[in-house]
Each structure stands twice: as structure tokens, then as C-alpha cells.
Specification:
Elements lengths: L1 H22 L6 H16 L10 H10 L5 H8 L3 H15 L4 H11 L5
Helix pairs in contact: 1-2, 2-5, 3-5, 4-5, 5-6
């Protein structure tokens, strides 16, 4: 029970961090630390890792990963910082079990997550 309350409290903190990051994306390492904490929390919970665990923001990023655009350019299109794009991309790679952008593109094509 106590662990459950702790996880619930961490979820609240991560939601607050996400809200702050959306309003002020240039806060140094906060986006990366928040994503690392989210990943650790998911691992502790035994959270599923795979395409079904992709967030809305990560799903919105997928088609843009398959382009020639840099993270900065993707960020401009999505109205987020390049740091946010990088954090989301790293999270996508982790959830898909890959270690690079090209591997992620191949994997999402295999899974049918990108249109034709």
C-alpha cells in the first residue's frame, strides 16, 4: 500500500514536471530527468514496454522520425523544444527495443504504425 501511494505521488510530480516543461521547454536537464524517472517508475511497476505503451506525444512523433528533419525542425513543427523531441525519441526507442532512429523507423514500419 505504501509503495502504491509513493507511485501515485511520483505520477503527480511527473505530471507537474510535464506541464512545466511544456510551458518552459528550455529548462536544461529537467526533460531528460523527468523521462528517466518515468522510465524507472514504469519498470518498477512492471509497466509494459512495447508499441502499446507509446504515449500520444510519442505517436505524434513517429511520422516525423521517418523524415529527414532534425530534432530541432521536428520540435518547431510540434511546437516543443528539440530537447523534448530527443527525450520522446529516446523513450520511443526504449519502448520499441531499438537503439537508433533508423531502427525505430524500421520497427514502426514492421508494426504498421506508419501509413503507407
Amino acid at each position: 500500500m505504501e509503495g502504491s501511494r509513493l507511485h501515485h505521488g511520483l505520477d503527480g510530480i511527473l505530471r507537474e514536471a510535464r506541464d512545466i516543461i511544456q510551458r518552459r521547454p528550455n529548462l536544461g536537464v529537467l526533460p531528460q530527468h523527468a523521462e528517466e524517472l518515468r522510465s524507472r517508475l514504469d519498470a518498477v511497476r512492471g509497466g509494459s514496454v512495447g508499441p502499446s505503451s507509446l504515449t500520444t506525444a510519442e505517436l505524434r512523433l513517429l511520422p516525423l522520425l521517418a523524415t529527414h528533419l532534425s530534432f530541432r525542425e521536428i520540435g518547431e513543427r510540434l511546437h516543443v523544444s528539440r530537447h523534448t523531441v530527443k527525450s520522446q525519441a529516446i523513450s520511443v526507442y526504449r519502448k520499441l527495443g531499438v537503439s537508433s532512429r533508423s531502427q525505430a523507423i524500421t520497427r514502426v514500419q514492421q508494426l504498421g504504425l506508419l501509413g503507407s
